[in-house]
Design goal:
alpha/beta; six-stranded parallel β-sheet; 13% strand
């Protein structure tokens, strides 16, 4: 039996190191238990949102890089090029702007202004009804597969709770309305291009719906709809939309740029990021694939154009 003595635990005094190890283990267990309890308490204390049946609440969603990957205006430009609304050199500019937007993950004011000016000049003289019909086709071709499922689910949660959901974007209102309709949303606020007798003049009504203008549009819609903004939610990826996000009681930063992320953390706003991995991977690598497709399409179009000459 002596040979089996090693199976029996030996009684010996605890050393200082073993005492320290035991105390450290106990402290770690206590801390873990406390943190778990605090997490459960927070989960219980956090109100259920959106609130079902609250007809004075609504949700406002930015479009570009919040609901959809990339910029709607650039996808629209690609669709118009396909329909020979403009020349190859204009497509190259659209491709570069879209590439920059996706790689940087932020809006560049000069690029956006250039894109708006280009779009206005392109649609001048065309009928509004024509662009609305084309917008439906362009959505299927370039936009439908770029909707973020996570953001779409958030919008659906508001709809399921009986709340209205609006897109708020600098994109042309006709395109924004197409996207809202396809996603089953209530409607859209967008940039309004002037038209006379149903024909575009090439001018804007007021200014692009961007930055502070978005906040004013939401404020005006809330007043018209009888909404309580403190019970409403807003979602955006861009620091340019801080004025809109600051209006509501439930602001969300979705796929946020660096400035919005910092601001959201300072204000204790909720964050959601549906990109995966580190920033370089989640923005750069997927974007590079998309950029390659756009650039490749541009190069092919240029080569084909030259071959036809």
């Amino acid at each position: 039996m002596a040979a089996l003595g090693w199976l029996t635990p030996r009684r010996r005094s605890a050393t200082a190191r073993s005492v320290l190890a035991g105390e450290a283990s106990a402290e770690a267990a206590r801390k873990s238990s406390q943190e778990a309890q605090e997490t459960r308490q927070v989960a219980v204390a956090e109100p259920v949102f959106p609130v079902f049946g609250d007809d004075r609440a609504a949700a406002f969603f930015d479009l570009d890089n919040t609901v959809m990957q990339g910029a709607a205006l650039f996808h629209f430009g690609r669709g118009l090029y396909k329909r020979k609304f403009f020349e190859t050199r204009d497509l190259a500019r659209f491709a570069w702007q879209q590439a920059w937007f996706r790689l940087a993950g932020v809006e560049d004011p000069e690029h956006m202004q250039d894109a708006r000016d280009s779009a206005l000049s392109i649609v001048k003289g065309h009928r509004v009804a024509e662009l609305e019909t084309i917008g439906e086709e362009i959505y299927d071709e370039y936009m439908a597969d770029r909707i973020w499922p996570g953001t779409r689910a958030l919008a659906q949660a508001h709809l399921d709770a009986g709340q209205k959901v609006w897109l708020v974007t600098a994109a042309p209102v006709e395109i924004a309305q197409v996207i809202a309709r396809r996603l089953g949303l209530t409607g859209a606020l967008g940039t309004v291009a002037e038209s006379v007798d149903g024909v575009y003049t090439g001018k804007l009504v007021g200014e692009p719906l961007h930055g502070p203008a978005k906040a004013e549009a939401v404020r005006a819609l809330a007043a018209a709809e009888g909404l309580d903004l403190s019970r409403c939610a807003a979602y955006s990826d861009s620091h340019n939309d801080i004025p809109m996000l600051s209006l509501v009681g439930h602001p969300y930063a979705i796929n946020p740029d660096a400035k919005l992320r910092r601001h959201a953390r300072e204000k204790d706003w909720r964050l959601r990021d549906y990109r995966t991995g580190r920033k370089a991977a989640k923005v750069g690598i997927p974007a590079a694939a998309g950029v390659g497709a756009v650039a490749g399409g541009t190069a092919a179009a240029i080569a084909l154009s030259r071959r036809r000459r």
